[in-house]
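Lay summary

Proteins are chains of building blocks that fold into shapes. Our project writes down both the chain and a compact code for its shape. Here are two examples, one after the other.
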Amino acid sequence: MATFAKPENALKRAEELITVGQKQEALQALHDLITSRRYRAWQKTLERIMFKYVELCVDMRRGRFAKDGLIQYRIVCQQVNINSLEEVIKHFMHLATERAELARNQAQALEEALDVEDLEADKRPEDLMLSYVSGEKGKDRSDRELVTPWFKFLWETYRTVLEILRNNSRLEALYAMTAHRAFQFCKQYKRTTEFRRLCEIIRNHLANLNKYRDQRDRPDLSAPESLQLYLDTRFEQLKVATELGLWQEAFRSIEDIYGLMCMVKKTPKASLMVVYYGKLTEIFWMSSNHLYHAYAWLKLFSLQKSFNKNLSQKDLQLIASSVVLAALSVPPYDQSYGASHLELENEKERSLRVANLIGFEVEPKAENRVALSRSSLLSELVSKGVMSCVTQEVKDLYHVLENEFLPLDLALKVQPVLSKISKLGGKLSSVSSVPEVQLSQYVPALEKLATLRLLQQVSQVYQTIQIDNISKMIPFFDFTVIEKISVDAVRRNFLAIKVDHMKGAVFFGKQSIEAEGLRDHLSLLAESLSKARTMIYPPAKKAAKLGEALSNLAEIVEKEHKRLLARKSIIEKRKEEQERLLLEMERVEETKRRELQKMTEEAEQKRIAAEYEQRRNQRILKEIEDRELEEAQALLHEAEKRSKRKKKPVLEGVIMELALNEQLRERQEMEKKLLKFAKTMDHLERAKREEAAPLIESAFKQRLAEEAALHEREQQQEIELSRQRHAGDLEEKRRLGRMLENKRILQEKVVSSREAEFTRMKRERQERISQIIQSRKQEREARRKMIFFLRSEEERQKRLQEEEEARKREEAERRKKEEAERQAKLDEIAEKQRRRMLELEEKEKREREEILRRSTAVLSKPAEPPTLGRPAELGGAAPIPAAAATAPTPGPGKYVPRHLRAKMDGAGQAPPPETDKWGGGSKPDDRPSWRDERKPSPFGSGSRTSWPASRR
């Protein structure tokens, strides 16, 4: 990496390398200079270096180098001179566009040169194989190799510039201009893939702008200028999308514009909204969504009528006619009929979303499932006076299709009107967003509507009609097309039609009994049948004697009383439960309300704190700016005093720029002074050293001679001192030699005494260690015996516990087995008793039927004299008195009240008692149950339930 003392040197070096043809080395040298941390202060030389740098990048098609250099230059220029960055970027785009245009002009086959699906994709393997196999050579291949790389580089240039300028509030106009030029590039060369990517890039930039709101140089969308630039960019995106035929991307652009409007809570100008709704009409028409298309036309008509002062009567008439025809083109049935719950919810959300885009406020409630509908649209056309502005042909068509009932002539009357309408239309002179209106585009939908209306009206008059007659009545379509239209209408529950091709007829009818036309008929039929039945069978007169007519009145009254009491208690319980639920709901609502209030208060406190913090930050920033402004003014004032120039009036907006320029100039002057002073000091220091050199040399030699004499003198003194110390040491040795014998005797005495003491201490230590070992052995032996005893005891206890548990388990199993055997015996006895009772009930049933059959046979022969004296056992019937004949006879098994039993006993002889299996004489109704056989009645001998005679 080369380093330069000054930026001018790097520029000069790059020009020299370019002259000798080494452009790559020149580019690398400039790149190292730009990305170096050494040159972070802006100066004019850096701007010239950047111009040369981008020229090299464009010449060599090095987009990555250009992006890195522009990012570094943006850091340098952001706070000092942002206009320099703007000029460099404009020069960069101009060079890239110029080279791409030059390459395009050189190529003669533009369609083949641009026949690439994706400018960012590399060559596909199949393309390479095809080129080798087919042997493509000559001009076609040269055009592809010449033009396509330059267009790739131009596209990369646009992306790079947009990425650099995406969050720079000072270069919003340049960002918008770059986006417009990129849109025009995609439009001019039909680049649909690049256009989609460009839209996504701009959309992500806006999303990141809203996500990271604490950036320093972030654009402020609440400012009118910024909002207008962003809206102009989105409207240009919408126009290019519609011209390229990318309708899905156009709808996303519409959503982007709506999101911007919601973000800043401000409606754009009427001229932009006219473009907005004009493009919406095209989008909805291409998506075959006639309802939303009609609503968009209605909003466009309202805007043109309210804000366009230059709107002529002819243009207004054409727009109003388009609105009405678009509304009539909407199918008259519900498109969502028969859909699933999920599809209905999705359609509801989609309708609400589109309603917001069109500009209609709709409450998202469950009952408003259809936010926008055909009926509401037609009512709005009448209420807003649209029908008064349309042509006469459109009025006639609307009247025929919506108001008249012509089951046979409807299509024949509509056909000439549609022929006239198809010729209407033309260019609009005063509506820029909708340059041309052709009413003929609505004719197929209106023919379909006329067919549906005719079939609907014919179904109300006829039940069957020939296919040939329908084909004659509908001249628009063949019968196959009519059949398809009918199938769609039947599927949407608009018509009920059956087509029989074998008979050549069409049958009309209703699909269900809940149809609209059958409700009144069924109710009238029911009323008529009720009246006829009353006339044929008049109600019978009431019985004279209430007691005779209602023999079981007391029982009924008692049951009804109990039922009413039970119903009253149920109602009371329901009321209490409802009150409890209401209290619970009120408590839950109160809790929710308090939580919501608490959340609201917390949110309000957070908002107030955020506003306070924002105001404090703004105040601090304002103070900093004011302080900087004051310092800049003071600096300018000092500069004017030094230069003794006349003070000129300066705007406040350029004070900072002038102050920065003044600081830069002073810094440069100070650097020049320092360089001059450094040069002067360098010369002075060199002269001083030249004069001092011989003096230093002579002083050094003199110092060497003095140090040599001093060294010789010190050596002699050291030798003399060493001789004197040696003589003294010899004398000391002779004096101490006389004490050696005494020293040896004392040493032997001390050593012997210490050896005896060591032996004694060693013996004592051995004895102490042996005692400790013996005691620890005894302790370990006692511990082992204790552990063995405890383990043996635990094992014994565990064995006893296991034996006890085994015994308990065996006892439980034995009891369970005995209980199961006893239960099996009880079940067997119960089953036998149940079979016995079933046999008894079957036998009693047969006997009751026999008695009833005999009594019926006797009553059916009144003229035959009764047989007297016949025993009851032989089946003869006793004579029946007249009073007994008139009295109601209770049926078998029917309960008789106590106050009527005496009357029945006195009126006639009761049936003979039957002998049951147990030998008792009780009636069949009084037979004992199997429960009565097992235990006596708890109420004593006076109870109805008694034991059988065989057991008593």
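And here is the second example, written the same way.
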Amino acid sequence: MTVTHSTSNTLRFLSLLSLLLFLSLNPSSSASLSKDSQQLLSFKSSLPNPNSLPDWLQNVSPCNFTGVSCTNSRVSSINLDSIQLSTDFSSVSSLLLSLTNLESLFLKSSNLSGSITSISKTQCSSVLISVDLAENSLSGPISDIQSFSPCSSLTSLNLSQNFFDFNLAPKALSDGLVLNFTTLDLSYNKISGQNAVAWLLPNGYGNLQYFSFKGNKVSGQFPVTNCMSLEYLDLSANNFTAELPSFANCSSLQHLDLSTNKFSGEIVGSLSSCKSLTFLNLSYNPFSGDFPAFSGGGIQYLYLAGNNFTGELSENITGSLCSSLVELDLSSNNLSGSVPESLGKCSDLESLVISNNNFSGELPINTLFQLSNLKHISLAFNNFVGSLPDDSFTNFTNLETLDLSSNNLTGSVPTSICQNPGNSLMVLYLQNNYLTGPVPESLSNCSQLVSLDLSFNFLTGTIPSSLGSLSKLKDLMLWLNQLDGEIPQELMYCQSLENLILDFNFLSGTIPASLSNCTKLNWMSLSNNKLVGEIPSSFGGLSNLAILKLGNNSITGNIPPELGDCQKLIWLDLNTNFLNGTIPPALFKQSGYIAVGLLTGKKYIYIRNDGSQECHGAGNLLEFGGIRQGQLSRISTRHPCNFTRVYVGITQPTFNHNGSMILLDLSYNLLEGSIPKELGSMYYLTVLNLGHNDLSGPIPPELQGLKMVDIVDLSYNKLNGSIPQSLTSLALLGEIDLSNNNLSGMIPQSAPLDTLPASGFLNNSGLCGYPLPNCGSDSGLNSSGQHQKSHRREASLAGSVAMGLLFALFCIVGFIIVAVETRKRRRKKEEAIEAYLENNSHSGNGSAWKLTEDPTLEIELLQHLKVACACLDERPFRRPTMIQVMAMFKEIQAGSGIDSTSTIAADDSSGGFCAVEGGGVEMSIKEDTELGK
């Protein structure tokens, strides 16, 4: 330690000595460097946390400061990327941009905030060429870019991933941007409107070589003029709605990305002059017709996914592209026919993605054989038939991804798939086919394998223990096969394992306690097998475990209280086993600790149980990636429930903070004792099913803490006492089943309990009151009082119905009145415009104008309809009040409309699962009507 400290002091002394020597020999440079040093030190001292730049010190040359480079003894470049400066941009503009010899400034992801307008008030370096301020919190209109005008030499500016918008006065809009950039990146800001690009490029692209505007909300058209210098153009992920313009003057264009917009029209003709084009991405637009007949080579990366192209890939079409093609993505179109053999001539092809089409015929394995450079193959969701030859993959030493899921393939999983010890395979997806035979032991030779999915097939035999040698394996999914034997203990060596999905097989034996060594597990699903033994208490050490499904087995013993230590556990399904003992209160101590969900982006399907006698539990959550929704019937052989209530989507926990479980299903076991009052701490619990056990004692009033609960099933137990009045505070309760218990007393006569059917309260000998028969009494007085209460309740119910009908009538009448008024205003507007056109037309052959439909009318009508539907919602707690309805009408007439956060929209901030798209459904799971094809 002493030697190290002495060495450090020596180095510092030598550095200072060399600096003093240099300054003594170069007095003019010393003064300049000293000025640079003072500016940098002043900038450091202005920071909220100066310690973020620890080696910017008074007695050290600024050329030795972290992130600082010098040229000819002057500070010429500063790179403080990812250093948390946490300061306003005004400090940057006044103390860094004004450095006399500064040529480049890089402050990406440095936690900068404020406006960039302060630049115009300072002296910018006359030699400054490049500024990168990406991934910060800078804001203001994009017109503020003009503030960089003092930086006369600035040619490269990156303001991506900030909060700039487009809000310009008419005069400013006509002025346009006058700076002369060669590189400009404004991607992923908050820019919207139709004129943003036109303002930025009033005279075309000029000297621009690189222009990125992706990830905003810009609509309308964009200029394609004066683009001789343009090499890189990215306008993806916007709202452009136009036919593809001609790029006739863009002869230098190499990279063009217009994906995720609404472009249409003819492709080849628009790009025929772009002879230098190597990258073209037109994915997710409404292009249609036959696959475009590109002529000549040059394009290396071609992405046309998510359009409406139809027809077949003819031999000459693929042949014209093959000379240079490296990546080809034609997925999610309507292409059909077979894959042409000419594709095998694309010798440089590394990635082939043609999934989600209607290709048919034999799997083009012989064509693929010729493409020895392939790294990624995805032919999923097509109609290919045939088998995989056992020697088919020996030549694919570079192959990293093979996705043949959701086809009609037969035969066995080829043992040659990992035969070459130098293979690079990372992803193998063969799910949803008709494969038979065993899971090959040779898969253990795929040492780089990360994800293996052989689900939804007819595989037999055991799970190879050799899979335990796959140290990089994250996903092992083998559900819905005919596998038997025990779960290999050797899986404990898969230290990277995150998803273990083995549902719907015939696996036997005990659950290996050694799986707790796989500490990254977050989805473990072993339901619908023949497992015995106890739930390992060591699973409590799985701190990332989010979903644990062990239902429909023959598991015995107690529920381990250690599961309460799983602080990410949001889904616990243990239904239909032989679990005994009591429900441990410690199981609920994780409530309030779940903040971040690791289980994100996985496709799932949730089959809501229909309540039939054979259908046990609340429902079945299944991993569903790469499987056709239309083939759900294949599950029916092992799942006795009807497929009438099916929800699909993508797992995305939506807790803002401090979540809890969202599903707890312990039904159809042998549990006894009382329901722990600690269960009431599960604020976000949506489904609670404790039915068909031997639970006794009263229903804890603490269950009023289940504020998000939708389904409660406590049926077929031995519960006694009365139904707690506190349960009436469960405003979101949609279903409750307390039948077949020993409950007594009056059912609380208020919502939501008085809105639920009688079936949920039957076979409780002492239970009475609506919706069951009225409670009996011993005295006439009590009987009279009861009748009076009954009459009051009936009158109250009738009054509520009358008020509801009156309120709905008010909403509908209001809707009609406002719609009529809207139509009148629209007609007046049309008449005024027609009169203006008639009086001001200069056309010699009569008016050629045709008024288009006013789009605002349709929007207004839809908004009024939303209000009317909200008023008629069968769920009282979802209906807006009369005051809210009046406010909504007022907003619509003012032109502001109703957004998704209004009171008529379901609130999804409560937590749980949600699908990325789709309408809200029960259980905080949103329904998405499509899951592949």
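What can we say about the second shape? The first strand starts at residue 68 and ends at 71.
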